[in-house]
Specification:
With about 475 residues, the chain is α+β, with helices and mostly antiparallel strands. The protein is about 55% helix and about 20% strand.
Length: about 475
């Protein structure tokens, strides 16, 4: 296939157009087909049937396409002198795909289909030339289409890269914001706890010291009392027993009251209840000594109650001191120490102590094996244990069983916290560590879905992993693996 005329059109369009005009002038003056248009004029609109072919002599023509689902005109091609306009619609007889609008004053040859047919019949070379020009015109548009597509692909790739960068920047910004909020919260909590601990420690220490001092005075008071030696020794025994006794078991006390009732028939139920809590050996000594059974029993049980009161006060004071110590350990300010080598079991014990009010009705099964110390942020890890334990409490309700174990395996410390609650729906089990995913939606169990997401972030910062699995026997088990750091 020769392509001489088309090649010339690609190189010198105006020259080829003049050659075509000269051929047309053989039969009819080409000026007969000459049309002038002003800027803004419309040659044809999208969807029109074209029965003319347009040859652009001067000016610029812009082709527009209506964007889908809108009325907006989108520019698709900008035609310069030498271009053939409306070729596809003219040849195929299909409606025009575009709207042709004059962008700058233009001159065109507008040749009707019938005239073109007559010219082809008289001058066959015109059809040959025109075919080559049409092909060259289409080739030029195809070349421009490829260039445009490559530019569009390049722009799309740049947009994709920018979108990914923006997405990563957004994630980084969100992580930074969460860290700032968390650090600010922990710093504020640390300051509050420090002040609270200071205020509570002083009266607690004074209480414990006062109890010790009062206990010494009670012992001296007993020694100096006018009671005879044997009764005095008996009272001291009841007093010491009162300091050792625990909380009475109702069933055991009732059974023993029935047993000793025949031995002390004149005593009140209150006296018998107290006597039922002392060892049998003391009861036997009381019966052997007593000349006035009621009076002796009253004196001895009073000393027993005094001893028990001292025990309760001492135990309560120590518990307050331990709670404050655990709270200080739990919420240590991260500004003071980012990481340190710790025994994670201490943090678990501290967390259990502080959540004791929520789990006091549960059966607690602890199996905390010896594990090596590892470098970690104790306050952050304590937040993880708290989130998991409180979630278990919410799931189990008023009764349940909590199993906590830890062990070393393959260079990691593994902590398992399991409950016997209803478990987690399989539909959200794989998403439970994502933000805003929660199983608590109403009432007192409403949740924001942030606790486990924060926990996962904390564990990953410690180069560890956290997973959740439903147990076959019911409930869910959270497993945390922390890499053992070598000192």
């Amino acid at each position: 296939m020769k392509f001489t005329f088309g090649s010339k059109w690609l190189e010198d369009r105006s020259g080829v157009i003049e050659m075509m005009r000269s051929i047309i002038d053989r039969d009819v003056n080409s000026d007969h087909f000459l049309q002038n248009y002003r800027k803004g004029d419309i040659l044809f609109e999208e969807g029109d049937a074209l029965n003319h072919i347009y040859i652009l002599l001067e000016g610029i023509i812009q082709l527009y396409k209506i964007k889908p689902y809108t009325d907006n005109q989108f520019p698709v091609s900008r035609l310069q002198p030498g271009a053939l306009i409306g070729i596809i619609a003219f040849i195929t007889h299909y409606p025009s795909l575009t709207t042709a609008k004059v962008e700058s004053d233009a001159s065109l040859l507008k040749i009707p289909r019938a005239e073109m047919k007559s010219l082809f019949e008289k001058y066959p070379e015109i059809q040959e030339y025109l075919d080559e020009v049409i092909l060259a015109n289409l080739l030029e548009r195809y070349r421009q289409s490829i260039i445009l597509k490559m530019k569009l692909d390049s722009v799309n790739q740049e947009l994709k890269n920018e979108r990914n960068e923006l997405k990563q920047l957004y994630e980084d910004l969100k992580d930074a914001q969460n860290k700032l909020i968390y650090q600010e919260k922990m710093a504020t909590l640390g300051q509050l706890v420090a002040g609270f601990a200071h205020e509570v420690n002083n009266p607690t220490a004074a209480l414990v010291r006062s109890v010790e001092s009062l206990e010494n005075r009670i012992e001296k008071f007993i020694e100096k009392s006018p009671l005879e030696s044997q009764l005095k020794n008996l009272c001291v025994s009841f007093y010491e027993e009162g300091k050792k006794t625990g909380f009475p078991d109702t069933k055991t006390v009732r059974q023993k009251m029935k047993e000793i009732k025949p031995q002390f028939p004149a005593e009140s139920r209150a006296a018998l209840r107290t006597l039922a809590q002392v060892p049998d050996s003391l009861t036997e000594k009381l019966r052997e000594y007593s000349s006035d059974e009621t009076e002796t029993l009253t004196i001895c049980t009073e000393y027993f109650e005094i001893g028990r009161l001292f025990r309760n006060i001492t135990s309560s004071g120590n518990r307050i001191a331990n709670l404050v110590k655990s709270l200080k350990s739990y919420s240590r300010n991260e500004a003071e120490t980012e990481t340190e080598f710790i025994d994670i079991r201490e943090g678990i014990h501290d967390t259990l102590q502080l959540t004791s009010n929520r789990i006091k009705f549960y059966e607690i099964d602890l199996n905390l094996e010896d594990v090596p110390k590892t470098e970690a942020n104790p306050a952050a890890l304590n937040q993880v244990w708290t989130n998991i334990i409180l979630n278990a409490a919410d799931a189990m309700g008023k009764s349940g069983k909590l199993e906590i174990s830890c062990q070393e395996e393959d260079g990691f410390i593994r902590v398992d916290i399991c409950d016997n609650g209803p478990g987690i729906e399989e539909a959200i089990l794989d998403q439970i560590f994502e933000p805003n995913v929660t199983t608590k939606h109403t009432g007192s169990k409403f949740g924001l879905g942030l606790g486990l997401a924060i926990s996962k972030n904390i564990i990953e910062q410690h180069d560890g992993t956290i997973t959740a699995t439903n147990r076959e026997e019911g409930g869910v088990c959270f497993s945390v693996r922390l890499l053992v750091s070598k000192s």
